[in-house]
Specification:
With 162 residues, the chain is mainly α. It contains four helices and no strands. The protein is rod-shaped, with a radius of gyration of 32 Å. The protein starts with 14 loop residues before the first helix and ends with a helix.
């Protein structure tokens, strides 16, 4: 009179099919639990990644500000002081390159590295021109202006980072 659901009969599933469905349901449940656990673990990491990017941008902007300030002082100083200012500017640019390289590890490059290399080369040419056998640069104002313009362009680019 009464039949169990697991017994085979007209329209009923056999026992092996029921067991397969149970196993499938358990696996789906386990996968859902694993997915929820991964989401809970990864959400703070994703949030921290955004904070890290903001910190990189802030530090790049600070280094750009400092380099631009040094370049503005550069035009008003003598050759000996100019050499130390150029060293500071080069250090600022190298710091920016380092931060940019670190930001690549998070998957985003903030600034074009070629532009930074060009700036380092410009500073090196300026410094080499000052240090060649004690001779002065033919046109220091031209070097200073080109360096200030390049740093201003970098400053504007860094200011637009978000």
């Amino acid at each position: 009179m009464y039949r169990r659901y697991s017994q085979s009969g007209a329209g009923n599933m056999n026992l092996s099919q029921v067991n397969r469905n149970r196993i499938k349901n358990v696996l789906i449940l386990l996968l859902l639990v694993a997915l929820i656990v991964l989401l809970v673990i990864s959400l703070p990491l994703i949030r921290n990644q955004g904070e890290t990017r903001s910190l990189y941008i802030q530090k790049i902007q600070e280094e750009c500000d400092d380099a631009l300030r040094q370049a503005n002082v550069l035009s008003r100083t003598e050759a000996v002081a100019s050499s130390s200012e150029l060293i500071r500017i080069r250090c600022n640019i190298q710091s920016i390159r380092t931060i940019n390289t670190l930001s690549q590890a998070t998957g985003t490059q903030l600034l074009d590295d070629n532009a930074l290399v060009t700036l380092v080369n410009l500073v090196d040419r300026y410094q080499n021109g000052m240090n060649q056998g004690g001779q002065k640069i033919v046109n220091p104002a031209e070097y200073t202006t080109s360096l200030q313009n390049a740093l201003q362009e970098l400053h504007d680019t860094a200011g637009n980072l978000r």
